[in-house]
Amino acid sequence: MVMARPKLHVGLEIGTSKVGFVVGESRQDGGVRILGIAHSLSRGVRKGEIVDAEAAKQSIREALEKVEAESGHEVSDVYLAVSGGHVGSVNLTTRVEIPTPPGQVETVDLEDLNDSARRITLPTDHALIHTIPSQFRLDGRVNPNPVGQYGKILEGDFHIIHGDRNRTHKAIHCVQQLSLGVADIVFSPLAASQMILREDQRQEGVVLIDLGGGTTDYLLYANGALVASGSIPLGGEHVTNDIALVLEMPLQAAELCKSREGSVYFDSKQPPRLSPLRDVRGMENREIDFNKLNEVIYWRVWEILELVKQKLEATGRLTQAKGGLVLTGGGSLLTGVADLASKVFGMKVADQTEPARGGSRPPTHMPQFATLIGLVRYAQVRELRATPKKGPMSLGERIVGWLGVS
Amino acid sequence: MEFHRKAGEISALASKSPKVLVAGLGAAGANILRRIVMDGGNPDGLVCIDTDLGTLNACAAPKRVQIGRNLTRGLTAGGDPDVGREAAQESEQEIRQTFRGVDLVFLCTGLGGGTASGAAPVITRLAREEGCFVLVFVTLPFHFEGRRRQAQAREALSQLKPYAGALLTFENDRMGQLIVPTEGVQKAFAVADATICHSIRAITTMLEKPGMIRVGLDQLLAVLNGQDARCLFGFGKAVGVDRAAIAVRSALENPLLTEGDLLSSASTILVHISGNRSVTLAEVEQVMTEITARLNPLTEVLFGVSASEEIGDELWVAIISSVNRNQAAPAPAPAPRPAEPTALPVVASPDSRSALSPSAPALAVVPALTPIPAVPPEPPLAPIGSEENEVPSLLPPGPLKPRLRAPLPAPPSPAPIPQKPQQVVQRLISPEHLDAAAGAPGPVSGISQHPQPAPATEPLPAPRPLQTSTPTPGVQIDYAAPGSGANGKGGATITLDPPPPSFLNRDSHPPVSPLPAMPSTGHATAETPGWKAPAAGPLAGHHANGNGHGHGHINGNGNAAPVNPRHRGRFETCDPTLIGGQDMDIPTYLRKPHRPD
Predict the structure, then answer these.
(1) Which domains does chain A have, with CATH numbers?
(2) Which of A287, A302, B132, B432, by CA, is between 20 and 30 Å from A5?
(3) Is the ipTM of this complex over 0.85?
């Protein structure tokens, strides 16, 4: 008898500030156990997109070696997180008529719904990343699993996430050139949401904002369904760059200033606090106007949040997020960012100390790894649906299964 | 204008400091060169080309090339372009020799005459064959110079087009508006020369001085590109406390910009600011604000700043753009216009009658410049915090304190984003799920888009010629821009007036002050630039006449600023991110208005 090996899931995020791998395994109780998580400095990635493939591959290689060493497993296939300003989304509803006889909904009908949704025409050079059903309705009534039920008209609301084909392929090719397979691509915040958002939050309606290094990604859930998503190609690297340019210092020093001393609070009425960066080479005798530093940070973060807000308002659904905002990503560690977000949106910011799903290291303590860890969970859910006995599951089953993953 | 240089060559050129040669062809060209030298430009980069020995000997440029020695024997071409052309052909080797090893050539000449009209196309072609990139500056004859010269000029223009990397035409008529007729023809020509001279210097400074904010050749060409485009050019310089305001207004009043109206039909403009170390960020912002107030919000602005120690205390502002000929308003037909005081170096006189050649009665009067509609003086930046009924918000001057305050009222939401025209889809990595071929929906299903209120959130294409491949999200983020409309006043909202300068360009750099003019140490308030409203009075006192130091060296590093030498920082090699017309890679801190504290 073959011992069932716990299924391994590997996630890869080629981010702008870091490239991260995570290796996890599914636990009996449905949780995930992280076997290894490693990252390397990202090179060749800007605003969430690969601009220098060779440099990016080098970064990936470094992280790969680290995680294989740490987890003790060799990586073969990965779930790849994608993001970038090119990612867009659209909601649509598809409809099928249930043929009579038998008048019963079958999985093939769900597949038809899904196929129709996926035939949506997308912007030039874009391709699908996700087709996420958010709700099914049979004869107008909401029905989470209509298979087997009787009715005439079956409708499905879908949230389609799409991205620029070339950019995404670039990332996929980089991975493939390292002899890794790409099992699937995942829009980054969707992965993060797996670990961060609880079901009750999704039901209540919530906005998840992932403040990353190269991009700021967002998701909006209303009534349990994903109804809006997107990515803005601005992030922590812009904050750092702003600091470097306005305060006239090298990027590395700017990064240190930001992470060590930066906050969004500044008070121009007070005399600036001056404090040297003694341990940074070249900056030993440099005094920093921290008021200005924080003001620079403030403005950029404000702008980013404001942009997200405007995009969400354009969907008309922002008010449905009664559960408020959830912040994640490295940027959420910035002092005062929750305050700022709360003001920009006029919504409360949820306190995410309790992890959404059991079993992992609380990802909230490492918000910069939320996406990575979420990838494992995403992989797990996706593959769990394929019950070993039945073999590859039908698209219809997967579709229903997606309801739990969206 | 067409670009025959391959894209790769252009970028190679833009990446290093190019070897530049300014070539003046014909009498007009020689005058321009003389003007350059008089203004303090470096004579080493100049070369004078002509058939006429007299012109050559009088020319200020040390390098001279006599063409058509055998043909004309040192005399002029006599107004015959054929002679000019043959002269150039005769001296082909010498011309090639002149341009060998040069990267960038500014060829200036006045079309209409013999040498210029005939030789210019040949010389341009030869320079190109030697591997140079040629920017051709030509003047087109005054109306009163007669029909033949005009025809010859036009013919020469069409012959130049295939070879010129960029072709900037300056219509003398238009430039002549600067001059009061009593000043005479010579003065009219002189001013025309000066305009070209300034434009050349602005461009060379832009391209050569590493400066804090560099504009590359490819960007410049993008601005100048266009079939049959007409060049818009405005130039102003000033000294003193209000020099920024004065210089920019002077630039905007240049008739080549048609009093600022034409600017709104340009899709891209280039603004270049030159100054020495004393240039402050505040001044730069002031200039940009003033300019963008005149612009169509869709216009992209390329922006460059150079440090030029040589020009002393002057601040130079150059505005360059082009519009398509059919789009631009025609040069105003000469008509009597009341002369009014202008802000220009030449003072208008009340007498609007012309003493010019009676053989051109059409030009009875050279119209004097009408002043630009007064821009009401206002503080360059409306403090956001000064809106009366603004909710106590997170915006300064109140600093963002840790105590929570009332949430902001929701600003008006932007219009729903329309869907883009679309195409069939492919699953990205599972080819077996390709639905690519099928365009039509399946037999049993219908597709209905969600009705409002859930419009799609997807990238909206921005209608810009220089759009990067990143589709821009279709939201506006508007900052209070001074004086440019007041949709934000009274609203306690963050969405305010049209966006401030949009810095679209590949190598655009934020207008970082090069120097510690900004208080970076010690002092209490963050920014208290000299932000008083510029005095709206007559722009007197800016009659800069080149008594500052000239343009100076083509090389030379006037920039000693301690800015990160990779000017755009991390985004040096990136396509800019454009949202609402702004280059978001520029620090928000620099784009948002300052508030006086």
Answers:
(1) 88-162 (3.30.1490.110), 199-351 (3.30.420.40)
(2) B432
(3) no
